[in-house]
Amino acid sequence: MATSNSQARSGRGLHLRMSPKDLITVGVFAAIYIVIVFAVNMLGFVNPAVMIVALLAGIVAGGIPFLLFLTRVRHAGMVTIFAIVTGGLFLLTGHPPISFALTVGCALLAEAILLAGRYDVRRVGPLAYAAYSAWYAGPFLPLFYARSEYLAGAGVRQMGPEYAAQMDALLSPGVLIAFDACTVLAGLLGGLLGLRLLRRHFERAGLA
């Protein structure tokens, strides 16, 4: 009963009623998140080793807009729509379908964490972002079951044969598993960074 009362007072809860304001909020923060992630990940064009570092750095940087977004999440479904928007765009830019499915799955896990934490962003926000950030494993999943097709695909081919050869040599199953684990760690770091900036800057400016 206390949980229900707390959620009712704050306007947050399990209901799925989306207002135009909710959808605008999702769209704005999805756009900010995508711009930041794309900007950092562009460094990956240098070589595959830099790509891995850039992807992890992108996760950390993405924690800032994501945590700010979470302060505006009032009920279930908003994070999932965020995932559909961002994952859908990445799908259009060449990510495999399994990556989109994983993104939505990670969003549902993040939703569960937020609900369990009564939407207290300062308590569970970083953990929710860590769960969501596991979607970064998605684009590389085909390397486990369709490696040749992935490396021969248009996305890798346009980087040149040398880049493809370096990627094949670097991204062994062991490295991919380690990267998958690091996505969650980087997500936690990004969430903590976002939370720190919320407290130090955004709250003072009245943005959170």
Q: Please, could you describe this protein's structure?
A:
With 208 residues, the chain is mainly alpha-helical. The chain has eleven helices and no strands. It has one domain (19-202). α3 runs parallel beside α11, α5 (97-116) packs antiparallel against α6 (121-132) and α6 (121-132) packs antiparallel against α11 (173-202). It is elongated and about 50 Å long. Mean pLDDT is 89; it is low at 1-10.
Features:
11 helices, disordered N terminus, 74% helix
Topology:
Blueprint: H1 2-10, H2 20-41, H3 48-70, H4 78-92, H5 97-116, H6 121-132, H7 142-145, H8 147-151, H9 154-157, H10 161-170, H11 173-202
SSE series: HHHHHHHHHHH
- Please tally the helical runs, counting DSSP H or I stretches of 4 or more residues: 11
Please indicate the count of domains: 1
Task: Tell me how many strands there are.
Answer: 0
Indicate the percent of residues in helices: over 70%
Class derived from helix and strand content: mainly alpha
Major sheet description: none
What would you report as the Rg, rounded to the nearest angstrom? 18 Å
Large-scale geometry: elongated
Relative strand content = under 5%
Distance between the termini: 27 Å
Flag low-confidence runs: 1-10
Mean pLDDT: 89
